[in-house]
């Protein structure tokens, strides 16, 4: 008697792809809960058969590029991150913590698109139509071209798309929509997958640029299955400190442009504004030339951004001196303190040390090591860093100043901001100084301290590079 092969359902994790014969609540590979779903695999072979194509394959030179031309949104920093504007049919996932300003940014983009003659469909699943209207009135986004729909049913949203035929679609947020054809509550793995696939299909078939708002988890990653990030064309992260008006928009994934661009925004009373030159947000303007401060030029993606590091070193009354940091990694500060003590002869082991940045900036790259060390040395010696001076360079445990990437771009930005002297690594022999700027190449941290913190009785300045 011939035996028939039974079909095994099979289960697969949507996060990492781990497979199992039977369903389990927790993935055995990535340990994520609720991500194992039925894969529908068959032991008898693939179930999908060849069908007639919708249109024949076209030689790539014959494909029209006019249908994929970018269209500017009118928000310069948003266009910068997207690579120049919205591409027809592109699906953008905008993620960020609650209250960071995602809805405000989308309403601003929607209003600008409506003023240019486009019809925009704004779907709100988290707030009522009245709440969205109040926000639009506050930021000056009351435009008749913006069609507002407060819906949580996916079928109703698709019906709105068919009837409105918008040129731009915005959904706030994808975790609030649910399909009646899928089991589970809104925000679940199956629901989020179905909502994302349906909206992406609608956007691709109609050529509608679509922006989807996504929630984030406690660790800052996009909530829901990672499959959503793979399906969409662009993934943007909207970041900002709770007590700061500065907001940074960075792209994690971009099929139409670079992922190295960063957009700067500032929350104001009447909405959100693009900050084309964020230098003033990260540098103090009180005019005081005091000890314990030093400026540097960081690189966020491809964009050079200034940062001012402030330090305070004071005698400690505790057996275990205090170390407090804000905007800078505490482990990095401890390492620089050890290098200063061992290689530059500055004893700080018995002192309380406080380090902070201006304007809520977060400094994470090693290129700010020299500026951090100079700010600490300036606070310890109670002598200010040379006026109009910035510092760029990485500090090794040996006390050597190591080279950094994109040094020419950093130096050019420092010169544009008005810095007259810049401490750079000694290996920067290929970097040309802008007009009116002197470069001070140093090979060790002790040499950098000597250049940036001249003794009071010494009047001769170091020779420029």
Automatic annotation (TrEMBL):
It comes from the Bacteria. Residues 45-57 have a biased composition (Low complexity). InterPro entries: AAA+_ATPase, DNA_repair_RadA, Lon_proteolytic, P-loop_NTPase, RecA_ATP-bd, Ribosomal_Su5_D2-typ_SF, Ribsml_uS5_D2-typ_fold_subgr, Rubredoxin_2. Keywords: ATP-binding, DNA damage, DNA repair, DNA-binding, Hydrolase, Metal-binding, Nucleotide-binding, Stress response, Zinc, Zinc-finger. A motif (RadA KNRFG motif) lies at residues 253-257. Residues 67-216 form the RecA family profile domain. GO terms for molecular function: ATP binding; ATP-dependent DNA damage sensor activity; ATP-dependent peptidase activity; damaged DNA binding; serine-type endopeptidase activity; zinc ion binding. ATP binds at residues 96-103. Residues 45-71 are annotated as: Disordered. The keyword ATP-binding applies. Residues 352-465 are annotated as: Lon-protease-like. GO terms for biological process: proteolysis; recombinational repair. One of its GO terms (cellular component) is cytosol. NCBIfam families: sms (TIGR00416). The middle region has homology to RecA with ATPase motifs including the RadA KNRFG motif, while the C-terminus is homologous to Lon protease. Belongs to the RecA family. RadA subfamily. Plays a role in repairing double-strand DNA breaks, probably involving stabilizing or processing branched DNA or blocked replication forks. DNA-dependent ATPase involved in processing of recombination intermediates, plays a role in repairing DNA breaks. Stimulates the branch migration of RecA-mediated strand transfer reactions, allowing the 3' invading strand to extend heteroduplex DNA faster. Binds ssDNA in the presence of ADP but not other nucleotides, has ATPase activity that is stimulated by ssDNA and various branched DNA structures, but inhibited by SSB. Does not have RecA's homology-searching function. This is DNA repair protein RadA.
